[in-house]
Amino acid sequence: MKCPKRHSWLFSSLTTMIDLMIMEKKHCGIYVHIPFCKQKCRYCDFLSAPGDSKCIREYVSALKNEIRGYKDSAADRVADTVYFGGGTPSILEPETVEEIVEALGESFDLNSVEEFTFEVNPGTVTYQKLKGYKAAGINRLSVGVQSADDEKLKLLGRIHSFKEAVECVEAVKEAGFINFSLDLISALPGQSIKDCERDLEKIIGLEPKHISSYSLIIEPGTPFFKDYGEGGEKRRDLPDEETDRKMYALTKEMLKSAGYDRYEISNYAKPGFFSRHNSAYWTGKEYFGLGLGASSLIDNVRYSNVRDLKEYIKDPKEHVIEERLDKAALMAEFMILGLRMVRGISKKEFERRFKTGFDEVYGKVLKKLKPAGVIIEEDDTVRLTDYGLDVSNSVFEEFL
Ligand code: SF4
Predict the structure, then answer these.
(1) N or C: which end of the chain has fewer CB within 10 A?
(2) Which tens digit of pLDDT belongs to each residue from 38-83?
(3) Cβ(284)–Cβ(350) below 8 Å
(4) Helix axis angle, 127-135 relative to 162-174, nearest 10°?
(5) How far is the CA of 285 from the centre of ligand 1 (A)?
């Protein structure tokens, strides 16, 4: 005869155990790298290159293999965010994205994912493709518009015009994506402050929920470096430092009056639409990096995947340990990444994590930085001032 009472006790104990197991799971983010682009942009030093359909097929198969390898080791983690970056993830067909998402779901607990971002290049999508991405579970898009000036887009080596970028954004909205971000680059060769203002007006006019705005960096090894790097023939076409600073100030001012909160040095969002995935990096959350050259931070160890495509396809599970972060390195990282956020860091959170008094470790540094007007201490919070955010790199050096 069944004993309902005993059964219900057993059931509630089991439920409690399961609850506890869920509670004990560590939270993490997942990054998936898609290293293919239609053509290489002239300023880009990301790990990306054009790839034919055979190469993409082989890569996706290796990627799924790598993902399956995490089945046991990721069992005690729960993912909050997933981010497909590149390269150009939108080079993939929706069916391929579904396959990858399915593989992710077999190895990782995706039940709590609240933000699923996918990077889009305007020259690679259609309304149908975007609908397909939505059906695969993606709920946030990051669109690389970069400039509203066709001449500059051509100079950058982008594969799309601004008109095509606008059509892409219209398709993004029509496909039902409310949460989308646009990328913008300033300090471009030959760009005036007026041009920068026009770019900002046009980008704001597209009504994204989030805008990432960076100054152009001339990276060694790129075609841009030959032209605009040290000793390059066209270097004089780059805006000077003062113009760059003015563009930066204009960006802050125009985005603020358009209702965007600056929440990180280069990132602005309408209330509630900050990037949860990137914020997780800045607050020291663990993440799994999957795909060519991707890096992970798990249990205070930084791993990275091989950067050679052929090698990755041959053995996608080979990870290299880059660094075991000791307490000093973790504390420095907590400060440097946390201070990128406009809201700053919490001293109590620091003390909870490192079981060490904040002032004991950084009291002297703050004493030095505060009179310079770059940092503010208010009760539990330490944050950079507006000026501190502008000169953040030199401030961060003090925490190393
Ligand atoms: S699309 Fe993006 S990743 Fe690809 S080459 Fe251009 S900037 Fe680099």
Answers:
(1) N
(2) 999 999 999 999 999 999 999 999 999 999 999 999 999 999 999 9
(3) no
(4) 40
(5) 26
Q: For the chain, which domains are there?
A: 24-282 (3.20.20.70), 327-400 (1.10.10.920)
CA of 42 to the centre of ligand 1 (A): 9
In the block, tokens 């005993």 appear at 6
Inter-residue long-range contacts of 251-260, CB under 8 Å, 24+ positions, other chains counted: 251/184, 251/186, 251/196, 251/200, 251/213, 254/197, 254/200, 254/201, 254/204, 255/200, 255/204, 255/211, 255/213, 258/204, 260/210, 260/211
Per-residue pLDDT tens over the stretch 328-364:
999 999 999 999 999 999 999 999 999 999 999 999 9
How far does residue 75's CA lie from ligand 1's centre (Å)? 34
Dihedral sign, Cα of residue 66, residue 72, residue 77, residue 78: positive
Specify the amino acid at residue 142: S
Distance 23 CA to ligand 1 centre (A): 39
> The whole model's pTM is what?
0.91
